[in-house]
TrEMBL record:
It comes from the Eukaryota. InterPro entries: At4g14100-like. This is Uncharacterized protein. PANTHER family: EXPRESSED PROTEIN (PTHR33880), OS07G0189700 PROTEIN (PTHR33880:SF4).
Amino acid sequence: GAPLYGATFPHFRHTLPYCNFVWSVGIGRRIIPDKPQATPMAPPLLLLLLLPLLAVAAEAVPPNPAAAGGSAPPVPTPWPEQFHAVMFTNLTESGGRLQLIDLYYDWPRGRNLNLIHNQLSGDPTYDVEWTNGTSYIFDSASCRTIRFPVGVLPPDWLHGAVYLGRESTDGFDCHLWTKVDFVWYYEDVLTHRPVRWNFFNGTTP
């Protein structure tokens, strides 16, 4: 089936610019000035609904058939404990809606921010997530709190992923892994940085 959600990582940095970001009661100071129009809230909810499945994937360690041949397959590089990445997303279940997302990941402090810019929309949506499963979704017009049984993914959430081989995507030569037939994860062979990930409806594309 077609992926429910796909993201590419054109920029990936290990350092977080904390001097430009302030946290207070789980709500971050806005980096981009407010614009008068409101942003639909549906796409961030789609991302949040993926969290329980990703948590299952983080715990699952299926047997890797590639290891049976005698040579150990490549393993995914754990995420840095803190990083900033810029992602382009294509929400195929929402008519191919495009988004630009600044992801700020901070595992030591148990928090994660998705700063979401929808196509042709000036008002960003803020998705603040915590390790206790609490997420805050807000923009200039609305705010809501959602609680999930899982929180921020650990840096080694891809431990035990099944290696599928090498594949070229977006001009990068990548290693490709899957986890519980739900997420496909592409990592650049040379730099070991994430290039792309796709979330599927449980079937092989």
